[in-house]
Amino acid sequence: MKNFYLLRSLLLFCLISIIVSCEKDEITNEDLYIDPTEGTIADYVKSQNNLTNLATALEQVDLLTTLDSSELSYVFLPDNSAFNAFLQENNYQSIEDIPSNYLKQVLLNHIMNSDIDIRSQRTEPEVIITTRATQLFNSDNNIAAVVKHQGNTTTLNGVDVMNETMSFSNGNATIVNNIIEPSTLQSLLVSYESFNTMRDVIAQSPESEEIISLCDQRIVESSNTPLTVFLPRPEVIEAALAFEADFISAPVGDRFGDFVDSHVSETGTHYVGQLENNEEVVTRLRTATSRINNDGSVSLTVNNGLSLHTVNLIGDQEGILHVANGTIQKIAGSLYSR
User: Fold this and answer.
1) Which among 98, 127, 250, 317 could disulfide-bond with 103, CB atoms 3.0 to 4.6 Å apart, if both were Cys?
2) Using N-to-C axis directions, what is the helix angle for 196-204 and 234-247, rounded to 10°?
3) Alpha-helix runs per DSSP H in the chain
4) 14 found inside a domain
């Protein structure tokens, strides 16, 4: 009988131990949950079934380790549906068919170049920022992108970026349902409202289709010639066109065509900091000569056959905008003169 009680006590003790052990297992199972803040953005991408295309693309151009970097600020993660739509729209059969240099540029365009939270900057309806993407023909120039706020919606180059923000050990990330493509001269002129006047002039010029096609090239490498659009201030464009309308008898379309051709160069990217003294700058209609002034500013002088016409280039951060296929260089006046 004594042995029976001893055996029963041992069995009861084992049962209690099992129950306590199970309870402890439930507690430790909670600890098995991986807090995103303890992992990197790359860890998250590799673990998600809806980001397999992104993981494949990153691995193809050796960028997956970039998402392990300790200095990322904000990353947008295109999901599988975004890649599928991108492939279909651009007639690619698979991610492997996308030229590696362009794919790398596209992926880097999803990584912000600063720690600014673009969704919290609502003081302005539109803002230009830069991403980690660079021009294929000049890796020192980061590409501009347009942030727009409308109501409760924020878009980056036209893509809604309002999904949930996730925090990781090396930055923040948001899943997006479309590919955020690098800006071109055309997309920037179309999407940024401050450039609408120039966009409308281009649209009304006789060579609008040719100009738009030039400005909308997506892949420009070192073997190709990039572009420069010299962009007068809106009031300068309006004043120049109004003056020509009053004093020149040429058809409106021709005036617009000459105006546009005076401000588009197909001979390279010409901007403050790159231009040398007495460098020749050829636009589609005019040839100008650069001058580095004593104060460091840069000007272009056009010889129209009758007189010399000089225009100052705007050299601050907002005056020079790099995109995938060239550069927008803002100018204080107009290169169109007769």
Assistant:
1) 98
2) 40
3) 2-31, 41-47, 52-60, 80-89, 100-108, 185-191, 196-204, 208-215, 234-247, 252-262
4) no
Whether residue 227 contacts residue 264, with contact meaning beta carbons closer than 8 Å, is answered with yes
pTM: 0.85
Partners of residue 127 on adjacent β-strands: 147
Domain that holds residue 224: 186-331
Is there a domain that residue 152 lies in? no
Residue 140, number of CB atoms within 10 A of its CB: 8
Instruction: Look at the chain and report how many structural domains it folds into.
Output: 2
Do residues 226 and 137 make contact, with C-beta atoms less than 8 angstroms apart? Answer: yes
Distance (Å) of CA 210 to CA 120, 204, 322: 39, 12, 21
pLDDT in tens, 235-259: 988 887 776 555 555 555 577 888 9
In a domain, 91, yes or no: yes
Dist. CA 331–CA 338, nearest whole Å:
18
Does one domain contain both 195 and 166? no
